[in-house]
Amino acid sequence: MTFIGSKTETAMLIFAKDHLGMGPVSEERSNATILQLVPFDSGRKCMGIFVQLPDGRARLYVKGASEILLGQCTEILRDPSRDLTTTSLTPENDETIKSLINNY
């Protein structure tokens, strides 16, 4: 699967394909039950979409300014190449991620 778009969007799609079991984008879009769209807002610097999961729960996908979204995080993925377990976001993790963002 090849993705076209900004570096951020393609990185998110590659992550979803490799670690969340996402199939082709066209299939995912046609199969998704959208509950609510949260349009981009320059004050929030993000946008989102709520989708219905197969088990009846809902999931919010958010895309936006890295530094803004990081400020809302309390947990990070431990090692997404192994599994999707999380750990608390420590000040050290926060600084490492901010450095990655700034150098990207």
Largest sheet: 3 strands, antiparallel
Strand order of the largest sheet: 1-2-3
* pLDDT averaged over residues: 91
DSSP strand count: 5
Q: What is the CA-based Rg, rounded?
A: 15 Å
Poorly predicted residue ranges = none
Report on the architecture of this protein.
The chain has 104 residues and is of the alpha+beta class. It folds into 3 domains: 1-31, no CATH class; 33-62, no CATH class; 65-104, no CATH class. Helices cover 38% and strands 28% of the residues. The protein has 4 helices and 5 strands. The strands form 2 sheets. Strands 1-2-3 form a 3-stranded antiparallel sheet. A hairpin with a 4-residue loop joins strand 1 and strand 2 (46-52). The model has no long low-confidence stretch (mean pLDDT 91). It is a multi-pass membrane protein.
Q: Main traits of this protein?
A:
single chain, 104 residues, alpha+beta, 3 domains, three-stranded antiparallel β-sheet, two-stranded antiparallel ribbon, 38% helix
Nutshell version of this structure?
The chain has helices spanning 7-19, 25-31, 66-71, 91-103; strands at residues 33-41, 46-52, 58-64, 75-77, 86-88. It has 104 residues and is an alpha+beta fold.
SSE layout:
Layout: H1 7-19, H2 25-31, E1 33-41, E2 46-52, E3 58-64, H3 66-71, E4 75-77, E5 86-88, H4 91-103
Antiparallel strand pairs: 1-2, 2-3, 4-5
